[in-house]
Each structure stands twice: as structure tokens, then as C-alpha cells.
Amino acid sequence: MAHMSLKQKLEVLADAAKYDASCASSGTAKRDSRGGGIGSTEGMGICHAYAPDGRCISLLKILLTNVCVFDCHYCINRKSSNVRRARFTVEEVVQLTLGFYRRNYIEGLFLSSGIIKSSDYTMEQIVEVARLLREEHQFHGYIHLKTIPDADPALIEAAGRYADRISINVELPTVAGLKRLAPEKSATRISTAMAGMKSAIVDAHDASRRYKSAPRYAPAGQSTQMIVGADAATDSQIITSASGLYDSFGMRRVYYSAFSPIPDASAVLPLKRPPLLREHRLYQSDWLMRFYGFRAEEVGAATEGGMLPLDIDPKLAWALKFRDSFPVDVNRADKERLLRVPGLGTKAVKTILSARRHRQLRLEDVGRLTQSIAKVRPFITAADWRPVALVDRADLRTRLAPPAEQLELFAA
Fold first, then answer.
1. Parallel, antiparallel, or unpaired: how do β-strands 222-228 and 108-112 relate?
2. Average pLDDT for residues 259-263, to the nearest whole number?
3. What is the DSSP string of 120-136?
4. CA distances from 31 to 58, 145, 167, 362 (A)
5. Confidence category of residue 273, pLDDT binned at 50, 70, 90
6. The domain made up of 6-223 is a member of CATH 3.20.20
7. Residue 146, SS3 per DSSP
8. pTM
9. 302-312 pLDDT per residue, tens
10. Which InterPro entries does the entry mention (predicted)?
């Protein structure tokens, strides 16, 4: 690599980090600098900014380097890729983080990296950045570290002592996809690293309940990310894989990143990216499992040939397929059944449960709690409303699906 200025390195390594979606900063412990040090994870110094596609942009999101000894087919920074290379020193990352935070540009650091020399060497560098920020500079802001599953478990464990959140990427939804597109990576090593992190987090949580002086350990938990559309995995397979990650490893979040074609791409990759709406539908299905009580097989049952429909959301797709579960009486049904109603979110259901203790709810009352009463009406009964045969209409999907939009001829 030719000599580069810090600004030039930042341009290269910030751009190289844009493909990572798992940079949200929610769920961490509260810290501030009133007792000394710099930074905070709460209060006026923290602003959560999001890009139009939902990605968090309030962190300094960079790679330590985009040099990599691995040659994963889908990765823009793979060994055989013809891209401009750059590398930060540990001290440069530390100073960039402190400088951006003092200017109130960021709330913390999201740090990932290509593999330099070896997995252990790279992991040592990542951990050293976090250690210097915490111990030498008393940085109390948010730190999210992307760890390397091939590294020594002791190094991954050390990362959790300094970071708020740890990410260990599962990369692809299926073992077969990983073997085909990233043969140098091992599904077994990835799952072993995730299991070790879960165990360390649980142990630290138990210790904190018994001892006030117990140190915090990755208080925002661990997350992972999988690429959608690079292999032949169906949405049903992706949903099943995500559910297994939540159940087995206590994941805080599973992130989905639509595959994006890269320069000089391998012949085994698709020529076109999947529609971004597919990524959006997967996030909606994820919410159904996390907040609405749906099991993975129930969400999978809403698919068509293994794929979630793009014209309607997964909850509506499930309701249309299982119409015998409706209508639901908003004045009598329990929370679990109300959460199955298309158009009713968790806050709306909570309000319904509270309000109906005082009086019978009418359709107009429910209408105040939803963005589209037309979407809700076929699936509920209220004090003054019965859908009669509406829920059984053959054209109900057409009536409820959003209208098609004319695309611009020269849209990007």
C-alpha cells in the first residue's frame, strides 16, 4: 500500500464498512462522564440517526483494514478483489473516535476488519483499540466490535470486557451456502464462538446479580448478520436459521443484508441483487417472532414456494392463509390473538387491553390506533362492527395490498 493520509484512509475504510448492517446501538448499559472520562451512552450527547434504508449512521463505522487473507466470493474486500487497500494503526482509530466524539458527530465506535496476517493478530489489534479507549482515555461511549470466530477464544472473550456489543457474523443462512461461497470459513467455528460468547454473557449477568462490583460484560449482548440473495437460500430457510440463532445463542438481533453485486465478481454469484423489499420483509418476519409471538414455522407457512410475498407484509400473508383464525373480538380476545390481527401493533394492542376494561370498544376506537382501519376491519369484531363475509372474500388480498406504483424510467 502506498503512503496515505489519515483522510484518505478514512475515505477508503469508512466506505468499505458500509456493507455491514449490524451497527445499532440499543440495549447497552448506561454510562456517563460525570465521574471523569469522556463520552456517554445516554442523554443529550446521544442521537440515533438512521439512513433511509434503516441503517444506523450515528457511529464511527470503519474497518481497521480492508486487506484480507480470505477469499470469500461475496466480499468486496476478498484477497482476489481489485480494490484500493488501506489500513489504520490502532492509535489512529483511537484518535479518530475521540476526535469525532468531541465534535458530537458520533455516539461511539463500530469497528470491524479484514484479516491481517492471521485471525489472532487481527483480533489482538481490535481488542487493543477498545482497551486503549476504555483504560487509557476513559472513554464511556458506545463500542461495538465485530469479532473473528477463527481467533483464539481468549481474545474473543477479552473483546466482551471492553465492548458494549459483540458481533459474530454467521455470514450466510445455510451451511451449504457458507461452504460454497466462503470455503475458508467454518460453520462449526462460528457456532462455537457464538456459544462461548453466550456463556460469558450469561455468567457475567449472573455475577452482576450477586455482586454489585462485578464488571459489566458485553451489556448489549451479541448480534449477527447474514447476507440475503447471494446463495439459493429461501426466505423460509432464512427465517428458520434466524430463529435457531435466537434460541441457541440468545442473539439480541439478527441483521439481514441484501447481497449487492461487486466489481470483478466471482462467476458463482448472481448477476443481480435481490429486491430491497425482500430484506424489508425478512425484518418484518423477524419482528413477528421477537414481538408478536409467532413461531418460525408459522412465519414460514406464510411464504409462497418458500419466499415471502413482496406485495403484502408477512403478518397479512399469514392472516389471509389462515382465515379460520378470524375475526377476533377486540373486546374479548386475549393479547396473543390480538397480536395476530394485521394492522394492530404492540402499542395498539396494549391500548386496547387497557381501554376495554372501562367500556366496549367500537370500530372508530380501533381506527384511532392504526394507520389503516381498512386493513384491520376484515379481521376483527367490535361493539358496532361485524365483518360478515368480508374475511372470506376471494379478492381480499387485492383489496388490502398497497396499490402498485409507477416506477421512474431512469430511477437508480
1. unpaired
2. 81
3. HHHHHHHHHHHHIIIII
4. 17, 18, 21, 46
5. confident
6. yes
7. strand
8. 0.86
9. 999 999 999 99
10. Aldolase_TIM (IPR013785), DNA_rSAM_put (IPR023874), Endo/Exo/Phosphatase_dom_1 (IPR051675), rSAM (IPR007197), rSAM_sf (IPR058240), RuvA_2-like (IPR010994)
